[in-house]
Amino acid sequence: xxxxxxxxxxxxxxxxxxxxxxxxxxxxxxxxxxxxxxxxxxxxxxxxxxxxxxxxxxxxxxxxxxxxxxxxxxxxxxxxxxxxxxxxxxxxxxxxxxxxxxxxxxxxxxxxxxxxxxxxxxxxxxxxxxxxxxxxxxxxxxxxxxxxxxxxxxxxxxxxxxxxxxxxxxxxxxxxxxxxxxxxxxxxxxxxxxxxxxxxxxxxxxxxxxxxxxxxxxxxxxxxxxxxxxxxxxxxxxxxxxxxxxxxxxxxxxxxxxxxxxxxxxxxxxxxxxxxxxxxxxxxxxxxxxxxxxxxxxxxxxxxxxxxxxxxxxxxxxxxxxxxxxxxxxxxxxxxxxxxxxxxxxxxxxxxxxxxxxxxxxxxxxxxxxxxxxxxxxxxxxxxxxxxxxxxxxxxxxxxxxxxxxxxxxxxxxxxxxxxxxxxxxxxxxxxxxxxxxxxxxxxxxxxxxxxxxxxxxxxxxxxxxxxxxxxxxxxxxxxxxxxxxx
Length: 487
Description:
The strands form 2 sheets. Strands 1, 2, 3, 5, 6, 7, 9 and 10 form an 8-stranded mixed β-sheet that branches. Strands 4-8-12-11 form a 4-stranded antiparallel β-sheet, with no helix packed on it. It starts with a helix and ends with a helix. It is an alpha+beta fold. Helices cover 41% and strands 22% of the residues. It has helices at 2-44, 46-69, 137-140, 281-298, 309-312, 323-339, 349-385, 421-434, 448-458, 461-486; strands at residues 87-102, 107-119, 133-135, 148-151, 153-158, 166-170, 175-187, 199-208, 226-230, 237-239, 247-261, 265-278. Keywords: Cell membrane, Chloride, Chloride channel, Disulfide bond, Glycoprotein, Ion channel, Ion transport, Membrane, Postsynaptic cell membrane, Signal, Synapse, Transmembrane, Transmembrane helix, Transport.
């Protein structure tokens, strides 16, 4: 019996021993697989693990910074020292460039670095070496910053290449420097009454507002809550070397003022003032010099024979003065200048010059018309005084312009007029007018204006002679007055 029990125990032990042996080897296999898998990941996915480690380290650094600055312990929707005196915020601006100035849209585009300085005791942190900490835009979204906006701004944006151009520097005592790189397009009310000899005064205006959910724009921080000021006075505005194609920058000057709104109160406003003086040489080459040449070209007609009509009014086929061509050219210049300028309701300096020059060109054409008319009337009168025979060829006495010339008519071949009773009466009447007035008659003085007009008509060549002097002298006097007024 004992032998049977012993054999049964041995059989049970023999059956249980392989199972326990296999189970003891399973953890070793799992460990082997895990080690093998880690080795393969290190071989094929090492870069991914490195990136994940970097992201984890950045997040942990940000979490440590928030813990250091105790971000979660304070309500940064409220300004520092809420309920007490106004918080001073210093402003410092460095103008990087003035990208464009548009006369048509009356605006300018400027790129600048806007720096804010203030103190927030809630962000003070202990430091053994008294060194500041610098953060990017992610921390800016979690703390209070002064929300400064540009008055009369049309467009503006913060540069974001390759990252957002925002820098936040926190000092151990709670002083903060917040810097932003911005490009802004703002309104500039320009006065073109002296264009292109003008000087424009433009300004970029900064004011405070609040865009947090607790406030609306009407509830912006007024002077009792936030005080904007230039941190270093006049030295708070710095500029790089700026060169513009059409303007000289005469001066950059910061200033300060208050903006009053009837519904919400007074607000601090900072001004970046700059004076622009326009380059005149471009407009001298494109507008003034061509206009002067067109006016002087119209004077050439004064030295051309008054009977040479085609040469005086030629549209391009003649070799001499082209009066109508100068009128058309002046119209083209005026149209081109007006197209590049805003449609203002007042007269500009360039308009005065162009229209005065156009008037001189127009008067030169009128002068030719008067000379041609008086010459034609004078010659027709001379021809009517003589009786032209039927055999006379009138075309011989006509110039190329179609006018009769008395020098071309041979009056010696005309028959003498026989005396008739009618001619005798005419002779007696002429003699009676020559003889002295009889008693009881009244003398009638001739109108001096008619006498002068008849004298000019009979001596039309004198109009050209006077015009050769009057026109240049009048235009010279106009230029002296014009340039002395606008320069």
